[in-house]
Fold this sequence. Notes:
Number of helices: 14
Order of helices and strands: HHEHHHEHEHEHEHEHEEHHEEHEEEH
Distance between the termini: 59 Å
Bound molecules: pyridoxal-5'-phosphate
Number of domains: 2
Amino acid sequence: MLRRSFIPLGASPLWSAFAQTVAANPARDEKFWAIIRKQFPLREGLIYLNAANVCPASLPVLDRHQHFLRDFEADPSFQNRAKFGPLRERVRAVAAKFFGVTTEELAFTRNTSEATNTIVHGLQLKAGDEVVIVDDNHPSNNDSWKNHAKRVGFTIRAVPATQLIESPEKLAELVEGALGPKTKVLALTHVTSSTGVVYPVARLCRAAKEKGIWSHVDGAQSGGMMLVDLRRIGCDSYSTSSHKWLMGPLEAGVLFVSSGQQKNVWPSIVSVGYSEDGKGGARFLEAYGQRDDARLAALEATFDFLNMIGMEQVEARVRQLTTHLMNKLSENPRVTLRTNRAPELSCGVVKADLPQVADLRVLDQTLYKDHGMAFSVTPAGPIRGIRISPHVYNSLEQMDAVAEAFRKA
Ligand SMILES: Cc1ncc(COP(=O)(O)O)c(C=O)c1O
């Protein structure tokens, strides 16, 4: 049996201090979030607002990562490294609980791109088949299908991107309308990185299942940002990255493949540890040869950190920050919001344009240099704008500062 007390996280002074502080502050008020902010190594003066790209790992997570890395490097013998197998399984158990699935349904990848591409290349598609994608998907869940289609000969049907649609029902109808008799895969995004559209994934995966279509959900922007119950969503596969909203170590990812569907996926990489007997569940998709064991072991702290706050509270906080920001920005007549303000249609990501500003890249640089604000920018096109994606380490005050900087821009 793998016991959670195998290496007690509480043994780390950082962990015990964090756990005690959380326990002593039950209210999720500004004081509490200020405590959370102190758990991150973000430099003084930086207003980091690019969670949709990469999040900092918290100090307790860094501490765990460093601990395991030093342990590994101090004694890379098989004897010492034997601990990492059980540790990886312990992480799998924590991750499975986090996403509401079983340990047999999770594989550890290096990121969302790799997890999604495992599905793209692993499903046995042929000429005449069709894959439905959404134009808003990230290239790893969009160009990957197009590229593979060239080799295999299946066709792609792309649903147009729809940032400002009136309801989740309309959004669902748009995607459902694209599913046809030849459709074998529906490749969705849970929350888009461009403007934060929340897709009605549970309804869409149900529609796909009724038609015998594989549903894949890219969860790079939902894992760690909102409560994700994969059983409720009902997808066949789901991918996410540790280094985004989960605030875990860089270059780690999670791939979920539902147990009944694993037999339909070919592994992209086969190396030591690979087994065809089906007994290892989704583990056959993570046999890449030597892995960074320390990083995978540190993933446990990633989930523990979020669980300590509570995922419902994390999502509520992100929504509080983005709602506050959108309210402030919409008081400014020069700002055009590209993000839908309805809570059921967006989460975590705010895209705001200042059409009078000729080059947003220049403004983006100025905001970083003069105000210490770090964003992502889309310089042209229908979703032109500055992307603001706050997380639990940001404050309402920082949202006010962004609105003020936009007012002066
Ligand atoms: C929606 C979405 N999918 C996939 C990715 C790729 O994530 P990674 O670079 O961690 O593979 C991103 C990155 O921004 C993303 O926003």
